[in-house]
Amino acid sequence: MSEAEAMSISQAGGEQEDAGQEASSAQLSKAQLKRLKKKAAAAQGGEEAANGAAANGAAANGAAGGGGGTAPEPAGAEAEDSGDEEEGAEGEGGEAAAEGAAKKKKKKSKKKKAGGGGGAAPTQQTVPPTVPVKQLFPSGVFPEGEWQSYKEDQRWRETAAEKRELDRLQFDMINEVRQAAEVHRQVRSYVQTIAKPGILMSELCEKLEDSVRKLIDENGLNAGIAFPTGCSLNWVAAHWTPNSGDKTVLQYDDVMKLDFGTQINGRIVDSAFTVAFNPRYDPLLQAVKDATNTGVRESGIDVRLCDIGAAIQEVMESYEVELDGKTYQVKSIRNLNGHSIGPYRIHAGKSVPIVKGGEATRMEEGEFFAIETFGSTGKGYVREDLEVSHYMKNFDVGHVPLRLPRAKALLGTIDRHFGTLAFCRRYLDRLGEEKYLMALKNLCDAGIVDPYPPLCDVKGCYTAQYEHTLYLHPTRKEVLSRGDDY
Which residue of the set 182, 457, 467, 478 is catalytic? Predict the structure, then answer.
């Protein structure tokens, strides 16, 4: 027997033994074959096309070379197998092409992400600041202020379950105020780097206010600037900001009070500090800073406002400052004071004096207060002087008939953009208002809008100011505007 005949007999025997296996494999559907091929291709990675081609070639060669030595298969089965092979080859080719396209797409998308085109949220502030603060805190929870305990007779509040629950219920509201406070901290940190001798006061105010608008993500009356930037110089204690065209320049020997506010949904953060470049003014600034911190420390639920004023005056007037060989006692400006704050209302009714002898009204739970103190080397008493820049709609005014159409139109602008928040002439200029002074005077004469002229001590003296906003929680007080700077 020849070697070829022996091989043919053994193959025929093998075919008879494996007939059941071939029959079961022939019963596999086309879809099942495709799924098996896909799994194999995935396991082999990028080499599936080459491996598939090699396997097809081997199968074709095997069929051609072994056809004479093996028992012939039925014509129908042959046709089915060849059809399956062709379809599988086409399927593999299509799958390889599809996978190649998918890989290209993945590479493109990776390149886009690496290039920053996806717009990922920033993690730190820019210089100058332009990123809204809410993007820096994607969790939506903003930094807390400085916590201080109440005096001994109110310490029980910290452990009382009822008061702690009241505190938790106020979280959403207080979180909005903390956002406004964080905007204030970041803006004033930036402003302290640009407030240098030689800068135009108008330029300083514009940069400060533009930063507030960006960081708070200004949205009409829902979020924005709470009142015009006060940048009063030297003997001017408060309520001065440059009107359009003002060319005042900050000088090395100036003492500037920077007072600005931020608000979200009418919740106002009011805070101020003093900038002085000449170190001879340091005792004046230290006196006012210590007096403000004393007022914050003495504040609390059921505390009488007159007691806070007496404590502030005692600290303030314990300081002296020497200027040009003459020693001055630092005086509390007796007709200026701190105040309670309400929604869209910077002065909500209660005044916090900075001298003894004030009213005996008490602070209450759930109130916001601006604790601000003013020290002076002059008389310690201010009067209205210079050109008016600050205005504010009267919070309690009702309907007042107006005859001038221009006054009615201006009032509409004020209602839409400021409501009962303070504004200045620069803000009206920014909105495109022109030739409005007569209409503005008409609104003031009618009692709808109140003017707030600059407040000045005697010419030639120096005044300083520090201010913080605090909230009287049911459990403790929180100094919302506290920062690393003051």
Answer: 467
